[in-house]
Design a protein that fits this description.
Layout: H1 15-38, H2 40-43, H3 46-58, H4 60-71, H5 75-88, H6 91-116, H7 136-152, H8 155-174, H9 180-206, H10 215-229, H11 237-257, H12 266-290, H13 296-320
Length: 327
Amino acid sequence: MELPPLTHNYFSSSPKKELFYRRTFYFTIILSSLVLYFFWQPLRNTSFTYSLVSIGVGNPTIRIFFRFVTILGSEGFFLILFSIIYWSINKSLGFWGLLLMPLSIFVTSEIPKDILKLPRPDVSGVTVTTYTFPSGHASGAASVWGYLAVRLKKRWFWICSMIIIALVALSRTMLGYHFLGDVLGGLITGTAFLAMFLWVGTILFENNWQEKIPHSLIMFASLAIPLAMSYIPATYAPSLMGYVAGAGFGFLLQKEKLPFLTHGTCKQHFVRTIIGTTIILGMIPGLNLVLPQGVHMLTFVQYALTTFWTTYLAPLLFLKLHLTYRL
Protein backbone atom coordinates (compact mmCIF):
# COMPACT_ATOMS: atom_id res chain seq x y z
CA MET A 1 0.00 0.00 0.00
CA GLU A 2 1.59 3.24 -1.17
CA LEU A 3 0.76 6.42 0.69
CA PRO A 4 1.06 9.97 -0.66
CA PRO A 5 4.15 11.75 0.68
CA LEU A 6 3.78 13.82 3.83
CA THR A 7 3.15 17.38 2.67
CA HIS A 8 1.73 20.59 4.09
CA ASN A 9 -1.63 19.74 2.47
CA TYR A 10 -2.98 17.80 5.42
CA PHE A 11 -6.67 17.80 4.56
CA SER A 12 -6.97 18.03 0.77
CA SER A 13 -4.88 18.24 -2.38
CA SER A 14 -7.06 21.17 -3.49
CA PRO A 15 -5.57 24.50 -2.23
CA LYS A 16 -9.02 26.06 -1.72
CA LYS A 17 -10.36 23.08 0.23
CA GLU A 18 -7.14 22.87 2.23
CA LEU A 19 -7.46 26.53 3.25
CA PHE A 20 -11.12 26.06 4.21
CA TYR A 21 -10.45 22.93 6.27
CA ARG A 22 -7.46 24.52 8.00
CA ARG A 23 -9.45 27.56 8.99
CA THR A 24 -12.24 25.31 10.25
CA PHE A 25 -9.70 23.27 12.21
CA TYR A 26 -8.10 26.31 13.86
CA PHE A 27 -11.49 27.85 14.61
CA THR A 28 -12.68 24.62 16.26
CA ILE A 29 -9.56 24.39 18.43
CA ILE A 30 -9.78 28.02 19.52
CA LEU A 31 -13.54 27.80 20.19
CA SER A 32 -13.13 24.56 22.18
CA SER A 33 -10.35 26.13 24.24
CA LEU A 34 -12.52 29.15 25.03
CA VAL A 35 -15.45 26.92 26.01
CA LEU A 36 -13.17 24.92 28.33
CA TYR A 37 -11.77 28.08 29.90
CA PHE A 38 -15.03 29.96 30.46
CA PHE A 39 -17.13 26.91 31.41
CA TRP A 40 -14.51 25.09 33.44
CA GLN A 41 -16.69 24.54 36.53
CA PRO A 42 -19.85 23.35 34.71
CA LEU A 43 -17.76 21.00 32.55
CA ARG A 44 -16.34 19.42 35.71
CA ASN A 45 -19.70 19.20 37.42
CA THR A 46 -20.11 15.94 39.28
CA SER A 47 -23.91 15.80 39.04
CA PHE A 48 -23.78 16.13 35.25
CA THR A 49 -21.24 13.30 35.06
CA TYR A 50 -23.52 11.15 37.25
CA SER A 51 -26.43 11.83 34.93
CA LEU A 52 -24.46 10.46 31.98
CA VAL A 53 -23.18 7.47 33.96
CA SER A 54 -26.73 6.66 35.06
CA ILE A 55 -27.73 6.21 31.41
CA GLY A 56 -25.26 3.35 31.06
CA VAL A 57 -26.13 1.89 34.45
CA GLY A 58 -29.79 1.82 33.54
CA ASN A 59 -29.16 0.31 30.11
CA PRO A 60 -26.59 -2.53 29.98
CA THR A 61 -26.59 -2.49 26.17
CA ILE A 62 -25.41 1.12 26.12
CA ARG A 63 -22.77 0.37 28.73
CA ILE A 64 -21.43 -2.61 26.78
CA PHE A 65 -21.36 -0.49 23.61
CA PHE A 66 -19.29 2.25 25.25
CA ARG A 67 -16.96 -0.31 26.86
CA PHE A 68 -16.20 -1.53 23.35
CA VAL A 69 -15.87 2.00 21.95
CA THR A 70 -13.43 3.11 24.65
CA ILE A 71 -11.02 0.34 23.55
CA LEU A 72 -10.60 2.22 20.24
CA GLY A 73 -8.74 4.93 22.15
CA SER A 74 -6.51 2.69 24.26
CA GLU A 75 -2.76 2.28 23.88
CA GLY A 76 -3.11 -1.51 23.71
CA PHE A 77 -5.46 -1.29 20.74
CA PHE A 78 -3.19 1.20 18.95
CA LEU A 79 -0.17 -1.03 19.60
CA ILE A 80 -1.89 -3.99 17.93
CA LEU A 81 -3.31 -1.85 15.10
CA PHE A 82 0.00 -0.25 14.12
CA SER A 83 1.87 -3.53 14.49
CA ILE A 84 -0.46 -5.17 11.96
CA ILE A 85 -0.11 -2.14 9.68
CA TYR A 86 3.69 -2.37 9.98
CA TRP A 87 3.78 -6.09 9.17
CA SER A 88 1.26 -6.27 6.35
CA ILE A 89 0.20 -2.86 4.99
CA ASN A 90 2.76 -0.06 5.16
CA LYS A 91 5.92 0.00 7.29
CA SER A 92 6.20 3.79 7.30
CA LEU A 93 2.61 4.32 8.44
CA GLY A 94 2.95 1.62 11.10
CA PHE A 95 6.24 2.93 12.42
CA TRP A 96 5.21 6.58 12.70
CA GLY A 97 1.98 5.49 14.32
CA LEU A 98 3.97 3.50 16.90
CA LEU A 99 5.92 6.69 17.68
CA LEU A 100 2.94 9.05 17.65
CA MET A 101 0.77 6.98 20.00
CA PRO A 102 3.00 6.95 23.11
CA LEU A 103 4.43 10.43 22.48
CA SER A 104 0.96 11.93 22.18
CA ILE A 105 -0.40 10.27 25.34
CA PHE A 106 2.75 11.17 27.28
CA VAL A 107 2.93 14.84 26.27
CA THR A 108 -0.77 15.68 26.06
CA SER A 109 -2.09 13.68 29.01
CA GLU A 110 0.39 12.08 31.41
CA ILE A 111 2.57 15.15 32.01
CA PRO A 112 -0.37 17.57 32.50
CA LYS A 113 -2.13 15.05 34.78
CA ASP A 114 0.81 14.81 37.13
CA ILE A 115 1.25 18.59 37.17
CA LEU A 116 -2.41 19.52 37.78
CA LYS A 117 -3.28 16.49 39.98
CA LEU A 118 -7.04 16.84 39.52
CA PRO A 119 -9.18 14.02 40.98
CA ARG A 120 -11.43 11.79 38.92
CA PRO A 121 -15.22 11.63 39.37
CA ASP A 122 -16.28 9.68 42.44
CA VAL A 123 -18.34 7.01 40.69
CA SER A 124 -19.30 3.77 42.41
CA GLY A 125 -17.56 0.77 40.86
CA VAL A 126 -14.93 2.86 39.04
CA THR A 127 -11.50 2.69 40.64
CA VAL A 128 -8.62 4.46 38.84
CA THR A 129 -5.66 5.68 40.85
CA THR A 130 -4.27 8.16 38.30
CA TYR A 131 -5.39 11.77 37.84
CA THR A 132 -8.02 12.93 35.42
CA PHE A 133 -7.19 16.00 33.31
CA PRO A 134 -6.83 15.75 30.39
CA SER A 135 -8.17 12.40 29.22
CA GLY A 136 -5.48 10.20 27.69
CA HIS A 137 -8.01 8.19 25.70
CA ALA A 138 -9.48 11.36 24.19
CA SER A 139 -6.10 12.90 23.36
CA GLY A 140 -4.77 9.62 22.00
CA ALA A 141 -7.86 9.06 19.84
CA ALA A 142 -7.71 12.61 18.46
CA SER A 143 -4.04 12.38 17.53
CA VAL A 144 -3.93 8.80 16.25
CA TRP A 145 -7.20 8.62 14.32
CA GLY A 146 -6.55 12.13 13.04
CA TYR A 147 -3.09 11.07 11.87
CA LEU A 148 -4.50 8.07 10.01
CA ALA A 149 -7.07 10.30 8.32
CA VAL A 150 -4.40 12.81 7.26
CA ARG A 151 -2.18 10.08 5.81
CA LEU A 152 -4.93 8.12 4.04
CA LYS A 153 -6.67 11.23 2.67
CA LYS A 154 -9.99 9.47 2.11
CA ARG A 155 -13.23 11.33 2.82
CA TRP A 156 -14.98 8.23 4.15
CA PHE A 157 -12.08 7.61 6.54
CA TRP A 158 -12.17 11.22 7.75
CA ILE A 159 -15.85 10.79 8.58
CA CYS A 160 -15.25 7.45 10.34
CA SER A 161 -12.33 8.93 12.29
CA MET A 162 -14.35 11.90 13.51
CA ILE A 163 -17.15 9.59 14.66
CA ILE A 164 -14.71 7.29 16.49
CA ILE A 165 -12.95 10.23 18.18
CA ALA A 166 -16.27 11.68 19.38
CA LEU A 167 -17.52 8.32 20.65
CA VAL A 168 -14.27 7.51 22.47
CA ALA A 169 -14.38 10.90 24.18
CA LEU A 170 -18.04 10.43 25.15
CA SER A 171 -17.36 6.90 26.41
CA ARG A 172 -14.88 8.16 29.01
CA THR A 173 -17.66 10.20 30.64
CA MET A 174 -20.43 7.66 30.11
CA LEU A 175 -18.33 5.02 31.89
CA GLY A 176 -17.52 7.36 34.78
CA TYR A 177 -13.78 7.73 34.19
CA HIS A 178 -13.73 11.43 33.35
CA PHE A 179 -15.63 14.67 33.61
CA LEU A 180 -16.78 16.22 30.34
CA GLY A 181 -14.11 18.92 30.72
CA ASP A 182 -11.42 16.22 30.90
CA VAL A 183 -12.33 14.75 27.53
CA LEU A 184 -12.69 18.18 25.93
CA GLY A 185 -9.22 19.02 27.23
CA GLY A 186 -7.91 15.76 25.81
CA LEU A 187 -9.40 16.49 22.39
CA ILE A 188 -7.79 19.95 22.38
CA THR A 189 -4.33 18.77 23.46
CA GLY A 190 -4.46 15.72 21.19
CA THR A 191 -5.27 17.68 18.04
CA ALA A 192 -2.73 20.38 18.93
CA PHE A 193 -0.02 17.72 19.35
CA LEU A 194 -1.01 16.13 16.03
CA ALA A 195 -0.65 19.50 14.27
CA MET A 196 2.84 19.91 15.75
CA PHE A 197 3.80 16.31 14.93
CA LEU A 198 2.74 16.74 11.29
CA TRP A 199 4.45 20.13 10.97
CA VAL A 200 7.77 18.83 12.32
CA GLY A 201 7.48 15.60 10.32
CA THR A 202 6.85 17.49 7.09
CA ILE A 203 9.87 19.73 7.62
CA LEU A 204 12.11 16.75 8.36
CA PHE A 205 10.79 14.87 5.32
CA GLU A 206 11.24 17.81 2.96
CA ASN A 207 14.80 18.38 4.19
CA ASN A 208 15.69 14.68 3.86
CA TRP A 209 17.02 14.72 7.40
CA GLN A 210 17.84 11.00 7.59
CA GLU A 211 20.46 11.39 4.88
CA LYS A 212 22.23 14.27 6.67
CA ILE A 213 22.77 12.62 10.06
CA PRO A 214 25.04 9.59 10.58
CA HIS A 215 23.03 6.40 10.98
CA SER A 216 24.91 5.42 14.14
CA LEU A 217 24.03 8.75 15.74
CA ILE A 218 20.34 8.32 14.89
CA MET A 219 20.35 4.84 16.41
CA PHE A 220 22.01 6.11 19.58
CA ALA A 221 19.50 8.97 19.84
CA SER A 222 16.59 6.55 19.34
CA LEU A 223 17.50 4.97 22.68
CA ALA A 224 19.11 7.83 24.59
CA ILE A 225 16.39 10.47 24.07
CA PRO A 226 13.42 8.27 25.14
CA LEU A 227 15.44 6.97 28.11
CA ALA A 228 16.15 10.53 29.25
CA MET A 229 12.49 11.50 28.76
CA SER A 230 11.40 8.48 30.81
CA TYR A 231 12.76 10.24 33.90
CA ILE A 232 10.34 13.15 33.48
CA PRO A 233 8.07 12.87 36.54
CA ALA A 234 4.92 11.31 35.07
CA THR A 235 3.21 8.08 36.13
CA TYR A 236 3.62 6.13 32.89
CA ALA A 237 6.79 7.79 31.60
CA PRO A 238 8.96 4.61 31.65
CA SER A 239 6.40 2.49 29.78
CA LEU A 240 5.42 5.08 27.17
CA MET A 241 9.02 6.08 26.46
CA GLY A 242 9.93 2.41 26.35
CA TYR A 243 7.46 2.03 23.47
CA VAL A 244 9.19 4.89 21.64
CA ALA A 245 12.70 3.51 22.16
CA GLY A 246 11.84 -0.02 21.06
CA ALA A 247 9.96 1.14 17.97
CA GLY A 248 12.66 3.56 16.86
CA PHE A 249 15.68 1.32 17.45
CA GLY A 250 13.95 -1.73 15.95
CA PHE A 251 12.84 0.15 12.85
CA LEU A 252 16.33 1.53 12.19
CA LEU A 253 17.89 -1.90 12.73
CA GLN A 254 15.33 -3.55 10.46
CA LYS A 255 16.02 -1.08 7.65
CA GLU A 256 19.74 -1.71 8.00
CA LYS A 257 19.76 -5.51 8.43
CA LEU A 258 16.53 -7.14 7.25
CA PRO A 259 15.12 -7.32 3.69
CA PHE A 260 11.56 -7.30 5.05
CA LEU A 261 8.61 -6.39 2.80
CA THR A 262 4.95 -6.06 3.70
CA HIS A 263 3.91 -7.91 0.55
CA GLY A 264 2.57 -11.43 0.83
CA THR A 265 -0.34 -13.77 0.28
CA CYS A 266 -3.53 -13.60 2.32
CA LYS A 267 -2.36 -16.71 4.19
CA GLN A 268 0.99 -15.08 5.00
CA HIS A 269 -0.71 -11.93 6.26
CA PHE A 270 -3.08 -13.97 8.41
CA VAL A 271 -0.30 -16.07 9.97
CA ARG A 272 1.84 -12.96 10.60
CA THR A 273 -1.06 -11.33 12.40
CA ILE A 274 -1.82 -14.39 14.55
CA ILE A 275 1.81 -15.00 15.55
CA GLY A 276 2.69 -11.33 15.98
CA THR A 277 -0.31 -10.28 18.05
CA THR A 278 -0.21 -13.43 20.19
CA ILE A 279 3.38 -12.62 21.20
CA ILE A 280 2.47 -8.99 21.94
CA LEU A 281 -0.52 -9.96 24.06
CA GLY A 282 1.60 -12.39 26.05
CA MET A 283 4.80 -10.38 26.26
CA ILE A 284 3.94 -7.74 28.88
CA PRO A 285 2.10 -10.05 31.34
CA GLY A 286 4.76 -12.70 30.72
CA LEU A 287 7.61 -10.31 31.50
CA ASN A 288 5.69 -9.18 34.59
CA LEU A 289 6.11 -12.71 35.94
CA VAL A 290 9.90 -12.77 35.57
CA LEU A 291 10.94 -9.13 36.08
CA PRO A 292 10.78 -7.24 39.39
CA GLN A 293 8.04 -4.62 39.30
CA GLY A 294 8.46 -0.94 40.16
CA VAL A 295 12.06 -0.69 38.89
CA HIS A 296 12.27 2.25 36.49
CA MET A 297 14.85 0.81 34.06
CA LEU A 298 13.25 -2.63 33.94
CA THR A 299 9.85 -1.11 33.14
CA PHE A 300 11.45 0.91 30.35
CA VAL A 301 13.15 -2.19 28.94
CA GLN A 302 10.00 -4.31 29.26
CA TYR A 303 7.90 -1.98 27.12
CA ALA A 304 10.77 -1.28 24.74
CA LEU A 305 10.95 -5.03 24.03
CA THR A 306 7.28 -4.98 23.02
CA THR A 307 7.72 -2.50 20.17
CA PHE A 308 11.18 -3.91 19.35
CA TRP A 309 9.34 -7.17 18.74
CA THR A 310 7.00 -5.35 16.35
CA THR A 311 9.63 -3.51 14.33
CA TYR A 312 12.53 -5.99 14.31
CA LEU A 313 12.09 -9.38 15.98
CA ALA A 314 8.75 -10.21 14.35
CA PRO A 315 9.98 -9.33 10.82
CA LEU A 316 13.08 -11.44 11.51
CA LEU A 317 10.87 -14.39 12.52
CA PHE A 318 8.60 -13.88 9.51
CA LEU A 319 11.63 -14.06 7.23
CA LYS A 320 12.85 -17.26 8.91
CA LEU A 321 9.39 -18.83 8.53
CA HIS A 322 9.09 -17.68 4.91
CA LEU A 323 6.02 -15.58 5.70
CA THR A 324 7.10 -12.66 3.53
CA TYR A 325 8.68 -11.95 0.18
CA ARG A 326 12.37 -11.16 0.12
CA LEU A 327 14.04 -8.21 -1.63
